[in-house]
Amino acid sequence: MKYTVSLEIALPRERVVQLLADPEHLPKWLRGLVLHEPQDGVHGQLGTKSRVVLRMGQQEFEGLETITRREPVDPHGIAREDTVHFERELVGNGMWSATRDRFTETGPDTTLWVSENEYRFGSLLMRLVGLLMPGTFRKQSLQHMRDFKAFAERGADVREAKD
Question: Can you tell me whether residue 52 is helix, strand or coil?
């Protein structure tokens, strides 16, 4: 299963990338995050492997995230025409996913975030979920992006949300 979601954030690209790269901010915008703990490497750096635990309702998912691309390594002073790439793979029980994020400057104070997502399912149950409810995955990805946008632009914290 593959899909792409995108949104525009009313902040300069450099600031968006800095906020996304800071592990201290993850719980503020990544809804359902229980744990994001580097096992090998430094958070957000190329090749780093991290244990990730997410809770969605009564379900808990645990996986191993690997950073597969981060360009440029230093997001400071990037030329306006350049694109920032941040890619990762997540492997968990019966599932593999890849997220390929691109950040482009659309104006002096606006950033376009395009997120390409791919899922492969190993178990019959997960294949059925992917076939019967593909919109659920897309909706969740877009929710995470909207939560980040609200955090970045207004300081909103998902832990304080009443939904």
Answer: strand
Say if 43 falls within a structural domain: no
> What is the reported pLDDT for 132?
61
Specify the long-range contacts of residues 76-83, CB closer than 8 Å, at least 24 apart.
76/14, 77/14, 78/13, 78/14, 80/105
Which carries the bigger pLDDT value, residue 159 or residue 7? Answer: 7
User: Structure tokens of 77?
Assistant: 């002073």
Domains in the chain, number: 1
- Please tell me the distance from the alpha carbon of residue 126 to that of residue 132, in angstroms, as a whole number: 10
Cβ atoms of 97 and 116 closer than 8 Å: no
Is residue 18 a part of any domain in this protein?
yes
Print burial letters for 69-94: b (CB count within 10 Å at least 16), e (below 16): ebeeeebeebeeeeebebbbbbbbee
Is 90 exceeded by the pLDDT of residue 79? no
d(CA 134, CA 138): 7
Specify the pTM: 0.89
Query: Over 70: is that where the pLDDT of 163 sits?
Result: no
Q: Which two tokens stand for residue 35?
A: 């744990």
